[in-house]
């Protein structure tokens, strides 16, 4: 799920020896994630395209029928995904990619990933996720909770128990080295023991985001009982139970999904405006730098002009003095 510590997890796995792709292929840092997303842009775009193909987005997960992978719209996307994997990761011994959207379309990746694939499901307190999404996107808590449930249930349902490991963001902050070592052992990753001090330093940067404990979920009046039960089961290491997202009264659920879709469209428009504003700011900054460089160059040219004028005046003065000496009347001998 988004805002669940997946970027920190990716950074720590990178330090432990997992290849996440060339730096030029990773999404750049942003104000809401200044230490970087550690997401392969091409693979993230594949996930976005899959969601769009079926009328959804990251904020409005589409309903995918049982045969969705055989849909003709998937064929072109599948070919592009295979091309990216072959181009960027074919010669890598141990590699991975991070994108919360993968939770929604894991069946697609299980079909095309070469060799043995394992899944790390990052879980964070739903109250903290809702708070983070509200600060970043202005998302109402009820929508954030619904997304947390949809992503978490989809990840657990689509990544079989024998192929996945759960990692809680709160425990990763408390003991980054221990949690990464646990992942390496459980997934049997062929890497050396990571530098524990380096992992702790990296995780230290995220401690300011840690605001809610698991006990807060149990007594949060705004959370659905199903959300509370699922999170408590995951936190305690129990079987998550039925993973079908049990719908509320059908008419209310339809209205809620329509509201979520409308909000998703508004949020996409907001993101587009924010990206456009960011692009204009970058363009203005480039112009400012160009203007500063032009001013510096003009200042240098003026300085050189002054030097040339002084040299010219000096030479002209010397020439005049020589001429004057030649025409100066000689004193009688």
Short description:
The chain has helices spanning 6-16, 41-53, 72-89, 106-112, 126-137, 141-158, 169-174, 176-187, 196-204, 214-218, 225-235, 250-327; strands spanning 119-123, 164-168.
Note down, in words, how this protein is organized.
- By secondary structure, the protein is mostly helical.
- The protein folds into 2 domains: 240 residues, Rossmann fold, CATH 3.40.50; 87 residues.
- The chain is built from 12 helices and 2 strands, in the order H-H-H-H-E-H-H-E-H-H-H-H-H-H.
- It has a two-stranded parallel ribbon.
- Helix 1 packs antiparallel against helix 9 and helix 2 packs antiparallel against helix 3.
- The longest helix has 78 residues.
- It is elongated.
- The relative contact order is 0.11.
- The model has no long low-confidence stretch (mean pLDDT 85).
Query: Nearest-angstrom radius of gyration?
Result: 30 Å
Overall geometry: elongated
In CATH, the topology of the largest domain is named: Rossmann fold
What is the share of helical residues?
Answer: 55-70%
CATH first level of the largest domain: which class?
A: Alpha Beta
Q: What share of the residues does DSSP label as strand, in percent?
A: under 5%
Distance between the termini: 108 Å
Structural class: mainly alpha
According to DSSP, the number of beta strands is 2
What is the tally of helical segments?
A: 12
Task: Give the CATH architecture of the largest domain.
Answer: 3-Layer(aba) Sandwich
Order of helices and strands: HHHHEHHEHHHHHH
Q: Major beta sheet, specifics?
A: 2 strands, parallel
Order of neighbouring strands in the sheet with most strands: 1-2
Overall pLDDT metric: 85
Which parts are unreliable, with pLDDT below 50 for 5 consecutive residues or more? none
Tally of discrete structural domains: 2
